Amino acid sequence: MAGITAFKLSSGSSISCSSSPTFSSKPSLLAGRRSSFISFPSRTRFSRIYALTSNDIRVGINIEVDGAPWKVLEFLHVKPGKGAAFVRTKMRNYVTGNTVEKTFRAGSTITEADILKETKQFIYMDGAQYAFMDQNTFEEYRLNESDIGDKAKWMKEGMDCNLLFWNGKVIDVDLPVAVKLTVVATEPGVKGNTKQGGSKPATLETGAVINVPLFTSIGDVVSVDTRTGEYLGRA
Q1: Mean pLDDT across the chain, nearest whole number?
Q2: What gap in Å lies between CA 215 and CA 217, rounded to an integer?
Q3: Is the pTM of this model over 0.70?
Q4: CA distance readout (Å), 79 to 84, 89, 105
């Protein structure tokens, strides 16, 4: 006969455990419903906030300081002969546009700003505002001319850009690394100058002025680096 052991609980009730367990041949009710309990979404969206240290600071990184988003423009790791090492930075506030210098202790904890990038199309200018549109929802977003800054000289209607969002608000725009723009004014092209050996100024359709090869003519479409304003070649 199978032995039975009784365990007494503190509440006064008892449970019995058989040393010879029995198994039911009937299918478990849960077995048929297992999928309803272990079904998870294939992708889960998490907030992109990461704990970093000052040693991770690089040009272009977005960090949150005093509750505001900042972009690192310059940085320098300093190891003095005496005292603790530190990181000296130059940063721009996305919200106010102010640029400041700030020092962080080496190894101190910093937080990456929770900034989301979404592709939108620049559609037109309305006074001193730049209007962008989501091509799927047709929702419109705007940035002030002061927010765009020098980037405006590379922007033309119909181009795709990355809008940066922080706390649901548009705070900046990232342009493509290279854009194609038409030359609208320059000195006449010189025949035979098809290779490097000289340059001349040229005005583009957006009003930007860049240096182009001597053979470049009005109507030519050129590729320009939006980070440096450098001529990359014919498009």
Answers
A1: 80
A2: 6
A3: no
A4: 7, 14, 11
